């Protein structure tokens, strides 16, 4: 009798264990070092300890803007009023003492700065932020008098004169136009971004769902593809369900996510060149892919049982690359195109760069935004 009871207890334990696994909360129950609220708070506050990153004399660099924007969204989601105050105090200087650091609206990377004051406006309703941020969204579609022939060609077709068909554009354009849409309610902003995204997908996405770094560079560079992943994600999150371009963008997003699953490396992350198994783990692009999957699962675009384990493993893997100073390691430096595989292999890896800090914070608030 006692033996039968033990067998029964063992069978029940196995049953309950499998039930727990099948019903697992993939985006919860993290180890302490991987708790998204803790990680997000630490990396957001790390921003306050760092100096501005500049384009020489052309204002604050987009990578810092991405990190600042992410920290603000994290603080907003977690209702961390102290952090919002710190982030706002850092920004207030741009209205007077640091006014010369405002990027001029002359390039796609610099125009994306507008997403930051527009996000502050959505939180505070302080019209100064709207007045500062909205021109960055508007001038992206206002042809300058000194525009060249290529810029005039895109403008005539209804696209941004800043169109380059570079894959990182699809975050830079999307994020500022999305925030302008949320701040004003004017659909022209989100419609612009959607039309632009369809152009880039039709021109640049390959049948395997990925994107070359450039048409003449046949390599799938991690962070470059990461910009497309997060750009599509942000746009789908903000785009109305009935928008005529939504189905095309969703198709491109799903194709990319499906193929990314095939290239996960031993760390649960992705390599510097995504399809090259002998390359090194690159964390900034990996964090962007993780963010895209987390948001996709949370919004029902991706099958939870298929993608949530991939996203969870990626988050845990990324947390292993955060050092004691709350800096992400193994971040590829800023990288221009070159038709050389060895060039990508040899790119320096840096620590604490904003290109990596930003998407880790994005992942943290995405995991909390259930």
From TrEMBL:
GO terms for molecular function: hydrolase activity. The keyword Signal applies. InterPro entries: 6-hairpin_glycosidase_sf (IPR008928), 6hp_glycosidase-like_sf (IPR012341), Glyco_hydro_88 (IPR010905), PolySaccharide_Degr_Enz (IPR052043). This is Glycoside hydrolase family 88 protein. Keywords: Hydrolase, Signal. The lineage of its organism: Bacteria, Pseudomonadati, Bacteroidota, Bacteroidia, Bacteroidales. The keyword Nucleus does not apply. Residues 1-23 form the signal peptide.
